[in-house]
Amino acid sequence: xxxxxxxxxxxxxxxxxxxxxxxxxxxxxxxxxxxxxxxxxxxxxxxxxxxxxxxxxxxxxxxxxxxxxxxxxxxxxxxxxxxxxxxxxxxxxxxxxxxxxxxxxxxxxxxxxxxxxxxxxxxxxxxxxxxxxxxxxxxxxxxxxxxxxx
Length: 150
Fold this sequence. Notes:
This protein is of the alpha/beta class. The chain has one domain (about 25-150): Cupredoxins -  blue copper proteins (Immunoglobulin-like). The protein contains three helices and eight strands. It has helices spanning about 5-25, 60-65, 75-85, and strands spanning about 25-30, 40-45, 50-55, 70-75, 100-105, 115-120, 130, 145-150. Strands 2-8-7-4-5 form a five-stranded mixed sheet, with no helix packed on it. Strands 1-3-6 form a three-stranded mixed sheet. The model is unreliable at about 5-20 (pLDDT under 50).
């Protein structure tokens, strides 16, 4: 096989990998009036790992208006949120090692960003997943759907 063909195939493979990785990175904003910038977060089912970034676009500190993002089965949102309130700020308002949680970020304040890389292999394209902020009083309002799409 000529060198030019090998190089072309190599560059094509690299460009596909870059595109696939870009599809597996999502970002969402949260503000001081307890709103996420989107009600739906979705990634292709082909993403085995996802990088999720949360940007707090407000100005208030984490202790008074902090936000994080947590992904769990929709049926577990209330239980995870309630358990998280007693876990406290130092645990990002999540019960430590909670196996109901697929992904979570730390609680951040205005002007801060945080990211988490998580594995989707335990999730199903037909699963019902919710993302929410576990800060006390926020989880009932700050919610959206997380989807694996084909």
